[in-house]
Write a structure and sequence with these properties.
Layout: E1 13-18, H1 25-33, E2 38-44, H2 47-57, E3 61-65, H3 72-83, E4 88-93, H4 99-108, E5 113-115, H5 120-131
Parallel strand pairs: 1-2, 1-3, 3-4, 4-5
Helix pairs in contact: 2-3, 3-4
């Protein structure tokens, strides 16, 4: 597997999750735990917690639920992209995504989005591609 610098690496992809609904966290974490080569290094439910965790967690990929209240998900994407350019951002959206938020997330620095109900294989591919700096 390639990392963002193009080097071969056997290290897992470090993912920090920003989940709008705390009740969904166990499901999201269980789903990610079933994907080989993915390590969850942090979970946050809001903008402040995310900002406080980014530096110590040092994720490779930030998985941001765009359904945070208002446009806080977009603000997180923008902050992470501007402050930690080495962190790749992948937006997490519902099955029928709000296209305006996806467009705003990409403009703010997300490399793409993945639907919450996507299968494990596609989810893993999305994380790997974004980790490599490719759009998804």
């Amino acid at each position: 597997m390639e990392n963002g610098g193009g080097k071969l690496s056997s290290e897992p992809i470090r993912v920090q999750v920003v989940e709008a609904d705390p009740d969904r966290v166990p499901t999201t974490l269980a789903f990610l735990a079933e994907i080989p080569d993915i390590e969850v290094v942090g979970v946050a439910h809001n903008r402040l917690a995310t900002m406080n965790q980014l530096e110590p967690a040092q994720p490779d990929v930030l998985l941001v639920d765009l359904m945070l209240t208002g446009y806080r998900g977009i603000e997180i994407v923008r902050h992470a992209s501007n402050t930690y350019p080495q962190v790749r951002v992948l937006a997490l959206v519902p099955a029928d995504p709000p296209h305006d938020r996806i467009i705003l997330a990409v403009q703010a620095g997300a490399l793409g989005y993945v639907c919450r109900d996507t299968g494990r294989s596609e989810f893993k591919t999305a994380i790997q591609r974004v980790h490599s700096g490719e759009p998804w």
